[in-house]
């Protein structure tokens, strides 16, 4: 961004720096970094506090429209059975933004990020697909079944499609005010993902494996599917 002569600030907790950044702005796209170690380890103020600080600064500078990269409130959806820190904090930011005094506030959520399959950490967590061949030479996607029948997973290409959804909201912000938009590229099963990969590369090099047990560290990566997009 600096190379493209886009102004940057270093401290998103600083009201003074945020005021400089937002002065004269018409709209704001906000994505707080759920992968920040301080947030993940719950050291200091939570992610939701940063979100509120940024929203307040935007309102103070007369920013009219906000698009937020949100997540659903996992604790509420699951009745408290599966609280996910990043999900709950982002949901709190979205709720706050809707009543903060902006002209419009919209959440654009992503599905499961297709981009992760080209990140080594996630490839290792999910069987190797699409980077690391297994002992048989296959790129194996190893995940538990989703449970829906037929299995459908909402996938989002963050690099190719997510920004188009954000742009679309800004083009007609009043229409989408207060809503949550799911920016989904395509819905398909895990097996369909590997089948599509094979069709594109022209050979049977990928396969869907079955995992009935998920280790804790893999489960954390599994839940972090939704927190990869950042600004």
How would you briefly describe this protein structure?
GO terms for molecular function: oxidoreductase activity. Keywords: NADP, Oxidoreductase. This protein is an alpha/beta fold and 231 residues long.
Topology, please?
Blueprint lengths: L14 H8 L4 E4 L6 H4 L6 H14 L4 E4 L5 H4 L7 H14 L5 E7 L1 E2 L6 H6 L13 E5 L9 E4 L1 H14 L1 H4 L3 E4 L2 E3 L1 H12 L4 E5 L5 H8 L8
Parallel strand pairs: 1-2, 2-3, 3-7, 4-6, 5-9
Antiparallel strand pairs: 6-8
Helix pairs in contact: 1-3, 3-5
Task: Average the pLDDT over all residues and give the rounded result.
Answer: 89
Level of helix content?
25-40%
CATH architecture of the largest domain: 3-Layer(aba) Sandwich
CATH topology of the largest domain: Rossmann fold
* Order of the strands making up the biggest sheet: 1-2-3-7
Instruction: Give the overall form.
Output: elongated
Question: Alpha-carbon distance between the termini?
Answer: 10 Å
H-E order: HEHHEHHEEHEEHHEEHEH
- CATH homologous superfamily grouping of the largest domain: NAD(P)-binding Rossmann-like Domain
Are there runs of 5+ residues with pLDDT below 50, and where? 212-218, 225-231
**Assembly context of the chains:** single chain
Structural class category: alpha/beta
Q: Could you tell me the strand content as a percent range? A: 15-25%
Domain NmrA-like: 17-220
Organism: Botryosphaeria parva (strain UCR-NP2)
Protein name: Putative family protein
Family: Belongs to the NmrA-type oxidoreductase family.
């Amino acid at each position: 961004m600096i190379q493209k002569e886009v102004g940057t600030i270093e401290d998103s907790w600083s009201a003074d720096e945020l005021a400089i950044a937002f002065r004269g702005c018409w709209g704001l796209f906000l994505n707080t970094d759920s992968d920040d170690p301080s947030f993940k380890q719950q050291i200091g103020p939570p992610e939701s506090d940063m979100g509120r600080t940024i929203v307040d600064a935007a309102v103070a500078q007369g920013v009219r429209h906000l698009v937020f990269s949100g997540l659903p409130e996992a604790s509420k959806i699951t009745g408290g059975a599966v609280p996910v820190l990043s999900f709950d904090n982002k949901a709190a930011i979205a709720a706050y933004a809707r009543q903060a005094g902006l002209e419009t506030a919209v959440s654009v959520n992503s599905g499961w990020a297709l981009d992760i399959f080209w990140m080594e950490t996630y490839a290792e967590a999910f069987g190797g697909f699409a980077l690391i061949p297994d002992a048989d030479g296959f790129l194996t996607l190893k995940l538990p079944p989703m449970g829906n029948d037929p299995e459908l997973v909402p996938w989002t290409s963050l690099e190719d499609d997510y920004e188009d959804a954000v742009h679309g909201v800004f083009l007609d912000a009043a229409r989408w005010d207060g809503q949550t938009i799911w920016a989904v590229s395509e819905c398909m099963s895990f097996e369909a993902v590997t089948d599509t990969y094979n069709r594109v590369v022209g050979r049977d090099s990928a396969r869907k494996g079955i995992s009935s047990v998920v280790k804790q560290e893999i489960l954390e990566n599994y839940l972090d599917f939704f927190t990869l997009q950042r600004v």
